[in-house]
Structures are given as structure tokens and as C-alpha cells.
Predict the structure.
Amino acid sequence: MRERDLDVRVVFSDCDRVIIRDWYDDRRRSLPPDQAVPSMLPAGQAVLSALPAGQAMRGEPPPGNAKRLKRGDILPPGQAYRFLPIELELRLTRLPDGYMRVIVDVDIVIIKIRTRVVLDILYNANRSGPVGRPER
């Protein structure tokens, strides 16, 4: 049976969502504010000073950064991403071969390695606030 003949749905489980949210919440609580890394600061706090005054007051991203990834998108070439911390990755459900979880900005994304297609997203998972589900 060929790979293209299989229909595999790879998404974040509810359990994984809770583990990820709790893991980042624990780190935020354990760091003093002056040692918090930008991606772990409350939403918007790390970037507000770099934005024009009107956007900073509204907490909006710069116009070129307004597009968010969604399911089915292809991770653009050159898009910066980081691997999840190994301590977190080891707590999560194992993904099938050929898939990986990465951090893109403040979102955690499951992609198919070969095609870079986004299969599922946890919006704002690497920031304070609720871990969001993608729009369907």
C-alpha cells in the first residue's frame, strides 16, 4: 500500500493541549519577570514597544505579519520555527513517522515533514492566555 493511499489525521489530542498549556504556565510562574523570554511574556508585551503607537495601543501586529497560519497551509520556505523543548515533547503523544511539532512565533504547529503542510495548530500556545483551537 502506498503512502498516498492512506488517510491519516494527525492532530493535537485534548490531553496534549492540556499538557502544553500546563507546561508553559509552569514556566511562566517559575521565572521572575526580568528573566522571562519574549515568547513567554503575556500576549503583546514583548512586541508592543517595537510597534507604531496606534498599533501598540491596540495590540495589533504589523501589517505584514497579520497573516496567521491555518490548517492546510504550507509552511513558507524560510519561515522561522523552533523545535519544542525536549522535556515537553517527551510528555506528549508520539506522532507517526514523518510528522513533527514545531513552534512558529507563539503558535505550536504539527506539520508533515516532507511537504511542510500544516495539519493542526495551537494558537498562542507559547504565550499566556488560553490555548486556542484553529478555526475549522
Remarks:
- The chain has one domain: 16-122.
